[in-house]
Design a protein that fits this description.
The protein has 503 residues and is of the alpha/beta class. It has 16 helices and 11 strands. It has helices spanning 2-38, 40-49, 76-83, 97-101, 162-172, 202-209, 220-233, 236-241, 326-335, 351-361, 378-384, 415-418, 423-429, 433-446, 461-473, 475-491, and strands at 114-118, 184-187, 195-198, 246-249, 267-270, 287-288, 311-317, 341-345, 363-369, 388-392, 411-412. It has a 6-stranded parallel beta sheet with strand order 2-1-3-4-5-6, covered by helices on one side. It has a 5-stranded parallel beta sheet with strand order 8-7-9-10-11, with helices on both faces. Strand 7, helix 9 (326-335) and strand 8 (341-345) form a beta-alpha-beta unit. The protein is globular. The N and C termini lie far apart (99 Å). Residues 1-5 and 28-104 have low confidence and may be disordered. It binds 2-acetamido-2-deoxy-beta-D-glucopyranose (6 copies). The site of one 2-acetamido-2-deoxy-beta-D-glucopyranose has 3 residues, from loops. It is a single-pass type II membrane protein. The chain crosses the membrane at residues 12-33.
């Protein structure tokens, strides 16, 4: 009996081992298969023109020893291939342990440019909106471990995910193992803070919770805004300066619609001022932040050059828009029959993202037209594709224009000129390869200022936003940056320096 029973148990042991092995290898195979099937257009581009997209963002500043290209970075750039958008906090970056081997020192609060106090708002205002549930009394996810950070939903929501990246950056500022710039540090005593950060995910709340559900009479979005106003009005921190030192992120143009009037004394991080009155939002106190681009960044060394971009001018989007969008319709009829112009209907969503990536990386110029609001994420998609943006949006506010001279890498055309027959194409065809290449080189230098990721990197969008906040807080910095801003702004339509004539 004993002899007999021993043989089958050994047999079963082997059988189980083999089947487990088969199960694992088949799931690995499936995983790889699904990778490639997610992004066929992207891979086609890889094969076609040797262009490929950076899977993980690498540090551009070689002088920063704390940064290594091996340091896992979380960003849609890499993980879109694996799980499409919204999965930017990817489990593939489990190399976080790598960081723990080196002894890192937490950011020293006396050296940081900006000390920020963050309210301990309950999760329903921030990560709870992402479906995250912590343990009892836990307010924040553990940001030490990438796999424990809730992912921001993909698709178009991601454009306005600025709230998420800024909050994660603050949370990580006291963790020694997270390597990030020391521009901002979180302090736990509000009297020691330069700025009070309000961690409300306003854009997500608008995008995901504006509709009434079940027998609700007030939407979650409205309710949260009401609660937030009540919370802030009751805080000593708010009363101290009437909210002037508070920082709120309301990147989606429709976010915080109910609360914005009452909280208008605070600093806002916005996409543009299109839907704000000048008393509530203005350049004196507020900050324009880039949209989180949806297409993947073209790797600098593999970026198609002038002759490798067969399309002269590319535009993808809706043709009919309200307000400033009339220009779209006029331009469409002017340009639709030109053979080197690709003017395509359709949104940048789902497969549209791959098409747009491919289209923009094959084009010399990318149109950026006023839509419902003066800004649009298309500009940032163009920058990520190193496609020289042609901006036809007279009221557009551009991020970090105090620091960046956009005339070095964008063409600005007034709407009144753009709608004249032949004007736009004559202008673009008249731009010499040499001039275009200069702009393209500049695009490759500035593109990292427009990228959001966790952990943040020196000079990326998160870091730039904190720097912009600190410039507003110091009066000498403020004066200097206002001057720089006006100087750059004036250069938008002044092409005498670059050799491009627009008049
Ligand atoms: C959570 O907070 C409440 C109130 O402060 C306290 O009574 C309770 O013990 C806390 N629970 C845990 C697990 O810390
Ligand atoms: C991160 O969290 C995951 C899931 O809970 C766990 O399996 C993993 O061991 C953690 N990694 C580290 C470095 O703590
Ligand atoms: C990462 O892995 C954990 C478990 O290992 C899972 O619960 C979580 O959803 C994963 N996150 C992402 C973004 O895939
Ligand atoms: C917070 O900082 C202020 C000023 O530095 C100090 O007077 C106060 O005691 C601090 N409060 C706490 C709870 O540490
Ligand atoms: C324009 O782009 C679309 C999609 O990217 C493509 O199907 C079409 O062939 C392109 N047209 C030209 C003229 O390149
Ligand atoms: C899609 C695309 O951009 N194709 C171009 C790749 O580069 C060659 C020249 O190197 C062009 O001829 C193709 O049009």
């Amino acid at each position: 009996m004993l002899e007999k029973s021993r043989i089958p148990s050994k047999f079963f042991f082997y059988l189980i081992t083999i089947s487990v092995f088969l199960l694992i290898s088949s799931s690995v195979f499936l995983l790889q298969f699904s990778n490639t099937s997610f992004a066929p257009a992207v891979f086609k581009l890889v094969v076609l023109n040797g262009t490929y997209f950076e899977p993980l963002v690498k540090s551009r500043d070689k002088n920063l020893p704390s940064f290594s290209s091996e340091v896992p970075r979380v960003d849609a750039k890499g993980s879109t291939k694996r799980c499409e958008l919204g999965c930017q906090v990817s489990n593939s970056s489990k190399k976080l342990g790598f960081l723990e081997k080196k002894k890192m020192v937490a950011c020293d609060s006396t050296q940081a440019l900006l000390r920020v106090f963050m309210y301990e708002l309950p999760p329903e205002f921030h990560f709870g909106l992402l479906g995250w549930k912590g343990k009892e009394n836990q307010t924040w996810p553990n940001v030490k471990n990438l796999s424990l950070i809730p992912a921001y939903p993909g698709g178009l929501n991601l454009q306005h995910s600025i709230e998420y990246w800024l909050t994660l950056d603050l949370l990580s500022s006291s963790i020694p193992t997270v390597v990030r710039p020391c521009t901002v540090v979180r302090v736990h005593n509000s009297s020691q803070a330069d700025v009070i950060f309000v961690p409300f995910f306003a854009s997500l709340s608008y995008n995901r919770h504006s509709k009434l559900r079940g027998n609700e009479e007030v939407s979650v979005n409205k309710k949260l805004q009401g609660k937030l106003v009540q919370y802030l009005m009751g805080r000593d921190e708010w009363k101290r300066k009437g909210g002037k030192d508070h920082l709120l992120v309301a990147h989606h143009p429709n976010s915080m619609l109910d609360a914005r009037k009452k909280l208008g004394s605070a600093m806002f991080v916005l996409a543009d001022f299109g839907r704000y009155s000048a008393e509530i939002a203005n350049l004196e106190k507020d900050i324009i932040a880039p949209y989180r681009h949806l297409v993947m960044t073209v790797q600098s060394s593999k970026s198609p050059s002038f002759n490798e971009r067969p399309i002269l001018l590319y535009f993808r989007g809706a043709i009919y828009r309200k307000d400033g969008g009339m220009v779209r319709k006029k331009l469409f009829y002017l340009l639709k029959d030109e053979k080197d112009v690709n003017f395509t209907f359709g949104s940048v969503q789902g497969q549209g993202i791959n098409k747009a990536s491919q289209g923009m990386a094959s084009s010399k110029f990318c149109l950026n037209l006023a839509g419902d609001t003066p800004s649009s994420n298309r500009l940032f998609d163009a920058i990520a594709s190193h496609c020289v943006p042609v901006i036809i949006s007279d009221e557009i506010e551009l991020p970090f224009e105090d620091v960046l001279d956009y005339s070095q890498f964008c063409i600005f055309v007034r709407s009144s000129y753009a709608c004249k027959k032949g004007y736009l194409l004559n202008l673009l065809r008249g731009i010499k390869q040499e001039t275009w290449t200069k702009m393209w080189e500049r695009l490759k230098e500035v593109v990292h200022h427009f990228g959001y990721q966790y952990p943040s990197q020196p000079g990326d969008a998160v870091d730039m936003i904190w720097q912009a906040v600190s410039h507003k807080k110091s009066s000498t910095q403020f004066k200097f940056h206002s001057r720089q801003f006006k100087f750059h702004r004036k250069k938008r339509y002044d092409r005498s320096t670059s050799g491009i004539r627009t008049k």
